[in-house]
Structures are given as structure tokens and as C-alpha cells.
Amino acid sequence: MFNKPEPHQRKRSLIDKVFGRITRHLQQGIGSLGDLWRTPFTSIMTILVLGISLTLPATLHVFVKNANTISSQWGSASEISLFLKLTVSDKEAQQLVQRLRLYPEISNVEYISAEKALKEFKVSSGFGDALTYLDKNPLPATVLVTPTSRSSQVLAAKELLQKITQEREVEQGKLDLEWLTRLEAIAKLIEDVVLGLAVLLCLSVVLIIGNTIRLAILNQKDAIAVMKLVGATDAFIQRPFLYAGVWYGVLGGLIASLSVSILALYFSSAIVELTELYQSNFVLQGLDFIELIMLIALAVILGLSGSYISVRKHIRAIEPTAD
Q1: pTM for the predicted model, two decimal places
Q2: E strands of the chain, at which residues?
């Protein structure tokens, strides 16, 4: 009878198997990087194509992110104009202002009396002399309400407008929502365009990587047939090509990250000059660390997907033939 292995022997055998598998993966991974080095022109061209393909949607994502930041700043600065009834006194108007300041959806309230509104209108309209012949001031007192950033969105702003126009002193409320609606529609359109381009470019990357791996497999067709003849499994043969796809993704992702950072730095100087004309200090935000990692991870997934599709189809088709 055979003696059963001791528990510590079984444990050591399992550890040896795990380390042995890890070692084989490292060897094949490093070996696949060496294969890329031995074909520099093809490898560099594939890496550049992958990096440039991902640079375009990533750069557009940067502009969409900054556009959303700008639009949110504009949205938080939108004002609701409340025109008070002509019978409302200054004391009642001040009481209204105090009540409005208690609203959690409102960040600022400014009161413009009827007299102040008439003075401003005289200066801006150019009819100052004609307005002196009026028997009474035709302009109502106005309250300018600035919503919070959360309440400045289209739906929230409409709800706030409906809510505050129910105050007894208010005759009419006005909020120019048309430009906000258009701005959100344009931002949504740009996001859809970026998503569509990203999908198309990702598909093209998968096809390019797949074709590159296919050519590499065909170049090693005889060696693969010999390996199968001596008992190598398809998984063992496929592994170096899969690692090649991973390396393409890693290097292409790094190229894309570097390109996006350079473009953001290049455009930021022009944007600073433009914003200075409007007395603004807006600074272009590039990809943060998490977004850079996600970009490289996406490139790795695309490279691995393209190589996986190629090796599953072509390596299985190679079979050793007897002479």
C-alpha cells in the first residue's frame, strides 16, 4: 500500500504549484515584451495607433468635464426676477426679502426699490428728460433672487419660481430658462458625440490589436505546430500573445495619458488668456489620477480583448501535420 502524503507535504506541494504557475506567467509575460522589442517598427506603430485613438475621446472628455464645470457656475449665477405689486410698500418689500432669505433653495436676495429702478432706467434708456413728465413711477419694485447651485438647474429653478411667486407681495416672476435649456442640450449632445466616438475608436483599437496578433501568430505558425506536436496545450501557446495584447494596452495607455496631459497644458495657456478678457480666473482641469488609471485600464482591456479574439480563432486552426 502507498503511504498517504503528510498534510505539510500536501501544503508544500500546493505552494510549489502556485509559485511555479506564477513563475511561468512571469516568464511568458517578460518573454512577450521581448518579442515586441524584436519587432520594433510594428510594435511602435501599433502602440502609437492605440494611444492616438484613445487620446481623442479622452481629450474630448476633458473639454466636456470643464464645460460642465463652467455651465454649473453659470447656472448657480442665474437670477429670478420678482416684480412686486405697485401697492407694496418698502416695509412690506423688506419683509418679503427677509422671508425669501430663509428659503434653503436661495443663496442671495437683492431688493431694488421702484425709485432706484426708475433712476437706473433713466440712465440706461436715454429718455431721462421725457420720464420727468410722468405723474407717477410706472416701474414696480423688484427682488432679484439667486438660487443655490443645486436649485439653479432647469427643473429645480422652475419649481423654485413657482414656489416664490405665490408670495402675496409678488405680482409676477420671471426666469430666463431658455438659455439654460439650450446649454444643457448642447452639453448632452457633446457627451453623446464623445461616447459615440469613443465606442468607434475602441472597436478600431480592438481590430488593430487583433490583426497585429494575427500576423504574429501566422509568422510563428510552424513553431506553434511543433509545440502542439510535443504536447503543448492551446492555453500555454496562447499566453504569450495575450500578454502581448496587455503590453500593447499598457504602453498605448501611457502614450494616451501623456498626450492628453500635453494637450491640456497647451490649451490651458490659450484659455487663461481668453478668460482674462472676461475678468475670470478659470483654470482648465486635465485628467485626475483616477481618470488616468481608468484610461490605462481601458487600454489594457482593449488590447487584451483584441489579442484574445485573435488567438482563440487562429491558434486553434493550427494543427501539426505529418510529413
Answers
A1: 0.62
A2: 80-84, 106-112, 142-147, 170-174
